[in-house]
Amino acid sequence: MKKTIAVLFGGCSSEHEISRLSAATVLRNLSRDKYDVLSVGITKSGRWFLTKATPEQVENGEWENHPSNCQAFLTPDRSVHGLFLPASRETVRLDAVIPALHGKNGEDGTVQGLLQLSGIPYVGCAALASAVCMDKAVSHTLLSAAGIGQAKYLWFYSSDYAEQAASVRERIASDLGGYPVFVKPANAGSSVGVSRVERGDDLDAAVAKAAHEDWRVVIEECVTGREVECAVLGNEKPEAALVGEIGASAAFYDYDDKYVNGTSQLFIPARLSQEVIEEIRRTACRAYRLLGCEGLARVDFFVRNETEVILNELNTLPGFTSISMYPKLWEACGVSCPELLDRLLALAFER
Ligand SMILES: Nc1ncnc2c1ncn2[C@@H]1O[C@H](COP(=O)(O)OP(=O)(O)O)[C@@H](O)[C@H]1O
Ligand SMILES: [Mg+2]
Prior knowledge:
Elements: E1 3-10, H1 16-29, E2 35-42, E3 48-51, H2 55-60, E4 70-71, E5 73-74, E6 82-85, E7 90-93, E8 96-99, H3 110-118, H4 127-134, H5 136-145, E9 153-157, H6 161-174, E10 181-185, E11 195-197, H7 203-211, E12 216-221, E13 226-234, E14 239-247, H8 255-260, E15 265-267, H9 274-290, E16 295-304, E17 308-315, H10 325-332, H11 337-350
Parallel strand pairs: 1-2, 1-8
Antiparallel strand pairs: 2-3, 3-4, 5-6, 6-7, 9-12, 10-11, 10-12, 13-14, 13-16, 14-15, 16-17
The protein binds adenosine-5'-diphosphate and magnesium ion (MG).
């Protein structure tokens, strides 16, 4: 019998639009021989609708005006095991959910917590790993305790910055080796709120920009080198795909580069020695296990001087658009997008 799968997209997140692109790719590639596929859109203001919009309409945002839309939400009631439609008081039983969501209120453990309550199998990490990987202050602290190489960093509460600006400036000099530095919100994604700061004069503005996205701010030394990404798949015994490299067209791999211009070049495999690539794959799986990831994650690194492997971050719901690295890396390993979705769903059922 076919399984009923719901794809969640949109959401209250600065990455709402990217989520729609990822969802469209998922909707186009899920095998209709194996699955009955439902689309559930979440508006930017947080309203949930079951929709019959096409993948194109999901992609371009027109889905919000689709005449078929009816209010529907995931209920934590396990006897329903799916959606509740308040207008008709109907319920729709689901076999699994694919949260094609990115950033806050989607990739950060919130939706995962609701799915856990509902008892419905779902693709990707559970609540804790999602929340930990989303928060750069927390994940940096855990990974550094495990001895995984990262950029030198510091973090603080944005509300303390007014009083502590002088000590933050001192620590930039003493702990991070001075400018340039990267200033980021602890929680965000897709480079939103991230700045590269060349000199002290620009620090306050960058902190304010990061603080707009989150109540904690992370500052890192600037790593010069290659930027590479490793796709990981699995539950207890994760597998790493090839390693891909980003040749960014801007000063850093920013939001426009990722989604608007499509100007950054991808190299698959990365232009690195086999030895370094193996170290990246091993480190990716180790970090994945350490932080309790399940299903999938894209683990991002820098490589300094062609040899030093520096972990940047883990993305638990990586971009899944037609130009995204995660599906491309598996494709390069011989796993097509429909097959990758089958494997992700199998991992969700296995858990
Ligand atoms: N410490 C760093 N050194 C050099 N470049 C960095 C550093 N941190 C971030 N970047 C650049 O900024 C981009 C976005 O930062 P990242 O930490 O990945 O945030 P996000 O979670 O928004 O993807 C990276 O892809 C990279 O190009
Ligand atoms: Mg990133």
